[in-house]
Amino acid sequence: MSERTGFDIVVVGAGSGGYATALRAAQLGLRVALIEKDKVGGTCLHYGCVPTKALLHAVEVADALAGKPLHSHA
């Protein structure tokens, strides 16, 4: 452990790679500092791949239901 920081490892960037690295280091018993300027998870999780897939799925569902009558079971 560094006497200056109190951490064994400092990970810069909490995208998929940095987040996985920090988690594994913590599992191995290291004291970890994780530095991120934006949201943990990175671009793919918040702005790219995951939100895009969710929106595409919603469009697929809406397209599949298009023109079908909606029934109330109340």
From TrEMBL:
GO biological process, one term: 2-oxoglutarate metabolic process
UniProt-recorded Gene Ontology molecular function terms: dihydrolipoyl dehydrogenase (NADH) activity; flavin adenine dinucleotide binding
Entry cofactors: FAD
Keyword match NAD: yes
Signal sequence, renumbered to the chain: none
Pfam families per record: Pyr_redox_2
Domain of life: Bacteria
PANTHER family: DIHYDROLIPOYL DEHYDROGENASE, DISULFIDE OXIDOREDUCTASE
Name of the protein: FAD/NAD(P)-binding domain-containing protein
